[in-house]
Amino acid sequence: VAHCKKFFFCGQEPFVADEYIERLAWRTPGGGSRGGEAFDPKRLLEEFVNHIQELQVMDERIQRKVEKLEQQCQKEAKEFAKKVQELQKSNQVAFQHFQELDEHISYVATKVCHLGDQLEGVNTPRQRAVEAQKLMKYFNEFLDGELKSDVFTNSEKIKEAADIIQKLHLIAQELPFDSLMGFCCYPLSSPGKYHDLECQLIQEFTSAQRRGEISRMREVAAVLLHFKGYSHCVDVYIKQCQEGAFLRNDVFEDAAILCQRVNKQVGEIFSNPETVLAKLIQNIFEVKLQSYVKDQLEEHRKSDAEQYLKNLYDLYTRTTNLSSKLMEFNLGTDKQTFLSKLIKAIFISYLENYIEVEIGYLKSRSAMILQRYYDSKNHQKRSIGTGGIQDLKERLRQRTNLPLGPSIDTHGETFLSQEVVVNLLQETKQAFERCHRLSDPSDLPKNAFRIFSMLVEFLCTEHIDYALETGLAGIPSSDSKNANLYFLDVVHQANTIFHLFDKQFNDHLMPLISSSPKLSECLQKKKDIIEQMEVKLDMGIDTLNCMIGQMKHILAAEQKKTDFKPEDENNVLIQYTNACVKVCGYVRKQVEKIRNSMDGKNVDTVLMEFGVRFHRLIYEHLQQYSYSCMGGMLAICDVAEYRKCAKDFKIALVLQLFDTLHALCNLLVVAPDNLKQVCSGEQLANLDKNILHSFVQLRVDYRSARLARHFS
């Protein structure tokens, strides 16, 4: 098997001994692997021995071949190592030759550079002499007054002529006029020929620009760069760029498109493209935009403040947007300052008094919105108290008469309008947006505070506060019959409006003042407004007196003495009295109205006060009657219904009061022997004995000796 492994491992497939022996046994007759054939162990053993011998012979042959290959490999390795050593020696020799060649090349290069410097030293003066000779030749032509050279007569060589005249002009300017040479050179130093050639170059530049020949424009601009009229060339370029560029109504979009087009072109023409582009933008701002802005604003400046402010905001916004687009271009080092100065130059006369115009317009517009609303209601505004918070608190503490004197009939009108509020808030929102855009950053918080003060004056004071005062004055007295309680409607609308006011405060005012000292002033002003309104809402607690008064009228009209002392004790068919039904219906409506009119802690505060007064009313009402046994049961049913109604308040104290009242009513029907046990119960044990006694006295059988004895 070991021989087999050595043999088969030289092949491609892995050797598995079990499979190999199995195949050998299968091929051997008598091996027992094929069906129907008797097993012959001797024959199988013989076959295995023969096969092993064959494998041993094969192993020896392969071993000799391996040894031969190993010897050949060692021989070739020695030859290869010898060849590598020879190559290394050849490489060292080649490297030495390269070093010598490099040194020789460096030596030759040094000689060549030295020779070049010598040639340049000889050639430069020679070239200058040649140029001087040419200039002298051209100078003679100028002195003779006849320009015969081709460079002056050929229009295609204007570039060379310009270069010659520029040099002669500079030379002539350096010579003193009182010398003979200076006098002779005067024609060259005077503006005549110089100016004529300059004009000719500018005309050539203009013609090339009209033809759209960028390469010719670049050549002429490069020549004019050394002339005094180079700036005039730039002006001509800027002027021609704008021809036909402002044909649409949107001058800002036209300006952006023009600058985008010139930005792509100017770098191919001028050597200082950022300066040329900046000059174009300056020309657009100072000429086109300034004229356009003036036409748009001066038309409405004195006649229509609303349109004037809208136009100012729109024009300033579009100008700054254009400036943002132009920031993408290369305009020099400080392009932000450059563009800001251009914008300021256009709008400075309008922004100096912007806030005064804004406040004046906002004041007149708000007053008009309010007056138009009151006129639509045929209502003449009454003067209201102007006292501060302390004055209001004092009036609340003393519970004096209502602020506007005698009760007035508002005919169900709350004098609050969602439309008016939306209009006022919209006007103020637009004012805040304009203030943010048009105000100087240092003046922004101050200006925003002034706008906020206008909103407080007209929305909170002139509208909400006036409606609350009028609503307070419209609260009927507690003894009025069929009184309509519109004050809760006023409270409901005022609460909704104030939420809108608070939203605008957070959304539009806060971002403008959040990092300035004006923030504390605005928060304090808002706090004062809230406190003042809450005080007036507290004063409106007199509405609860009217509710209680209405309930008293219902009880007085509907409750009969015979309800609790029926003539026929055995023929009582009702579960609770008619007075109870109507009172509970009225209370549920008022509770729902209070919940809809207020929010937050105010709801619980008012409902608690209302619930306590409701309990006191029922308690005092029950004290007015005498109760038979069946009448006491009916009173218990009434109080149970009142207690169900009290659950709608969702105030623990109110429900506890009615639970106690229900327990007290049990004293009207309990058997005399159980009175002491009931009075010592959980709900009645802590009550004053006089209260318990007062309820027991309401029983028709109270004077019986047995009852009096048990209770005592």
TrEMBL record:
<dbReference type="InterPro" id="IPR048627">
    <property type="entry name" value="Sec10_HB"/>
</dbReference>
<dbReference type="GO" id="GO:0006893">
    <property type="term" value="P:Golgi to plasma membrane transport"/>
</dbReference>
<keyword id="KW-0813">Transport</keyword>
<dbReference type="GO" id="GO:0000145">
    <property type="term" value="C:exocyst"/>
</dbReference>
<keyword id="KW-0175">Coiled coil</keyword>
<dbReference type="Pfam" id="PF07393">
    <property type="entry name" value="Sec10_HB"/>
</dbReference>
<feature type="domain" description="Exocyst complex component Sec10-like alpha-helical bundle">
    <location>
        <begin position="160"/>
        <end position="711"/>
    </location>
</feature>
<comment type="similarity">
    <text>Belongs to the SEC10 family.</text>
</comment>
<dbReference type="GO" id="GO:0006887">
    <property type="term" value="P:exocytosis"/>
</dbReference>
<keyword id="KW-0268">Exocytosis</keyword>
<feature type="domain" description="Exocyst complex component Sec10 N-terminal">
    <location>
        <begin position="41"/>
        <end position="149"/>
    </location>
</feature>
<protein>
    <recommendedName>
        <fullName>Exocyst complex component 5</fullName>
    </recommendedName>
</protein>
<feature type="coiled-coil region">
    <location>
        <begin position="52"/>
        <end position="90"/>
    </location>
</feature>
<dbReference type="InterPro" id="IPR048625">
    <property type="entry name" value="Sec10_N"/>
</dbReference>
<dbReference type="Pfam" id="PF20667">
    <property type="entry name" value="Sec10_N"/>
</dbReference>
<dbReference type="InterPro" id="IPR009976">
    <property type="entry name" value="Sec10-like"/>
</dbReference>
